[in-house]
Amino acid sequence: MTIPEAPRPSRVQELERWLLKEFGPVLRGQNLRKLLGYPSPDAFRQALHRHSSPVPLFTQPGRNAWCARTCDVAAWMAASEGELVVDPGL
Fold this sequence. Notes:
- By secondary structure, this protein is mainly alpha-helical.
- 46% of the residues lie in helices and 10% in strands.
- It has a three-stranded antiparallel sheet with strand order 1-3-2.
């Protein structure tokens, strides 16, 4: 009798697990900007102004920084793989 292999986690699950471990459930600031592939704070601000972020963004009460849910960023990264190069050593 052979033991069936455990199902391999999907790429979204792998990315989400890594992002949660590194950054927690909410991404913000420089980490968010870099993970979304914006080369500078100005490029990120321009995307905000144009409402062209690839994931839903929000602000938290009492804070000015834009945030995104880690699961949304992981899903976007998995869908964009091959188009986006992410440095895992952020």
